[in-house]
Every structure is written in C-alpha cells, then in structure tokens.
Amino acid sequence: MMKKGFKGMLGLGLAAVCAFGLTACGGGGQSASTTAAQSQEAKSEAGESKSEAAGTEAKKEFVIGMSQCNLGEPWRVAMNDQIKMAAEKHPEFKVIYADAAQDNSKQIADIQNFIQQKVDLIITSPNEATPLTNVVKEAYEAGIPVILLDRKIDGDTYTQFIGADNVDMGRVAGEYVANTLLKDGGKVCEIKGLEGTSGGIDRDKGFREGIASNPKVEIVAVNNADWLREKAITVAEEMLQTNKEIDLFIALNDPMAEGAYIAAKQAGREKDIMFVGFDGLPTPDGGIKSVIDKRISMTQVYPTGGAEAIQSAYELLVEGKELEKNITLKSEVVVPENAEELLIKYGGK
Asked: Considering only CA atoms, which of 248, 264, 268 is closest in space to residue 189?
C-alpha cells in the first residue's frame, strides 16, 4: 500500500511538472487548456487592474501651481481671478498660488518649490524672460508640464504658451497713432514696463513699426515704469518737465497710461496731450472705462488667458490630450466709438 501510494504521489508530481514545465516530460510546452485558462485569468486581472486604475485616476486630485510675476497690476489680479473661476468648475483641480512681487529670485524659488512638491502642472507668467528660463526648463525636464501665460522665456522648454500677439498689438497702436491721432505728426513720450519682459519688448517693437509709416511722428523720450501706475506718475512728471512739447503718451499698459494722465493733469496739460494704453480691462478702473471717460484715446483688450490655461490643463491631465505649442488669443481695439459696446461684451458695467 505504501508503494502504491508513493507511485500515485509520484504520478501526480510528474503530472504537475508536465503541466507547468515548458519542456519537462518531453512536452513542447504548456497544454492548450492550461495556457488558455492562464491567459484568461491574466486578462481578467489586467482588466480589473485597469478598471481600478481608471477609478483612481478619475478621483485623483490634480495639483496646479500658479506662479504669478506680480499682483501690483490689476490685469494680473484679473488673470488669477479667471484661473480661480475656471478651476472651480473642475473639482479634481487644486490650484496653489505664488506671487513673485516682480522679484526674479522670488519667482525662481516659487517654481522650485512647486517642483519639490511634485505638482502635476505649473502655470506661470514669467517676471522676465532670461532669468526665469532655467527654472522653467528644470520643471519641464523633470516631467512637469509648464503653461506660460502672456510672457515667454528664452527657448522652447515649456509645454504651451498662451497669449495675444504683442508685436501685432503694438503695431496696431502705432498705426492708429500715425494715421489717426497724429496724422499731421507730433512728439511722443513712451513709458515702458519692466525691462526684459517679452510682452513689453514686443509691444515696443510693434509700436515703432506702426509709426514708421509717418515720419512726422517722433519719439522724444522713453523710460520704464515697471507696469505700475504710481511709478508712471513720477516718470511722466520728469518727461513733462524736460519736454515742453508733448502731443501723446504711449504707455505699454493702461495703469501706466493713467499715471501719465494724472501727471499731465497735475501739470495742467492733460487737455493738450493724448494717451494710449494696452490691456482694456472691463473693470471700473480698467482701460475700457478710461476710454469712455475720455482719459485715454485708445487701448486694446488683452485677454488674460486664465480660463484657457485651465482648459488646457484639463485636456492634458484629465483627457490625456497633447497640447498645441502655442495658442494665440484675439485682441480688440477700444476707441470711443465702440468702448460702450465692448464694456458690455466683456462683462463690465
């Protein structure tokens, strides 16, 4: 009995070896029935794992880091507000904000902090292009998608850029000055933003191209006011003191145009000078209202891109779509003839 039992156990052991061994017992591999059963089991497990992964993916909270270059400009406050409103429509998104306050070192540290936190995506409007290039590249090469809003960096180590064509906007402003506001010629003072910002460089370039068609239009003074109204007042005061004849101030954003207007009014010269800006916010203190109130002769609506950035984040993180490298936003010219209409169109009162 013991021998018979031993032989039975031996037979079972050999059968097991033959069933699972690839070449044991002289077989060429697994039996068809065993292979099919194991394959089906593997597929079932893979399907369950995929289903579980999909369920986890759907419930996952995606963390987005928003690095703003400054919140001293009303337009940038509006950008953050639009990001917030758009993100609220996606409960899976959590947005954390950082304000660099126009400090390159602070913004570099902010983005490095996002990298260390391993956020899922970074949205940033770089304070200046060159100083922020390396840290944006660091994030991008670490596998964190980076969406640039309004301002670019050097090179193309980012996922997507969203913004209007600032060269074209500058050109449109220049042509309007050359052909309409100063068609008989005149002297222009230019107030720029922070040195080294791509938007400011592009607007200045376009403006100079635009006025080139009228050689009687002359730029007599240029200075920076870092995009800030209060600083523009001081800059404009100096220009008014050193230039007895000024026909127009071109400021590269509306708050600086307002600053120039305030300085001119304090000097009793606001009725002799025209003012042109950019951004065209529909807020009570924005550029569209300034045109309606006849403080500014022209501005242009410059979309913040906040809602578009969140839409791109959703397409990339949730839907798994590949993003276009560049999205160009449409701008609109604001002049007295259409200012009321555009105020209503963009939600102003």
From this structure: 248
Residue type, 340: E
- How many other CB atoms sit within 10 Å of the CB of residue 310? 26
Written as one letter, the residue type at 145 is P
133 near 152, Cβ under 8 Å? Answer: no
Q: How far is CA 120 from its chain centroid?
A: 16
How much is the CA Rg of the chain, to the nearest whole Å?
31
Q: What is the pLDDT of residues 178-209, one digit of tens each?
A: 999 999 999 999 999 998 898 999 999 999 99
β-bridge mates for residue 221, sequence order:
189
Buried b (16+ CB within 10 A) or exposed e, 81-108: ebbeebbeebeebebeebbbebebebbb
How far apart are alpha carbons 137 and 158 in whole angstroms? 7
Adjacent-strand bridge partners of 149: 162
Coil, helix or strand at residue 207: helix
Greatest distance between any 2 Cα atoms in the chain = 124
Question: What is d(CA 43, CA 248) in angstroms, rounded to the nearest whole number?
Answer: 74
- DSSP class per residue in 309-328: HHHHHHHHHTS-PPPPSEEE
Tens of pLDDT along 244-300? 999 999 999 999 999 999 999 999 999 999 999 999 999 999 999 999 999 999 999
**Strand-pair partners of 160:** 147
For the chain, residues with pLDDT lower than 70 are: 1-59
Cβ pair 281, 78 in contact under 8 A? yes
Integer Cα distance of 171 and 164 in angstroms = 13
- N- to C-terminal Cα separation, the chain: 101
